[in-house]
Specification:
Elements lengths: L5 H24 L1
Length: 30
Amino acid sequence: MSGNDPKDSTSLKEESIDFTKTLESSFKKG
């Protein structure tokens, strides 16, 4: 398993998008 796996980078990006969506919805609620 190499640390340069492109899959890791993709999943990281998706997690970041999820986090941003959660942040936005929580910001709208508040």
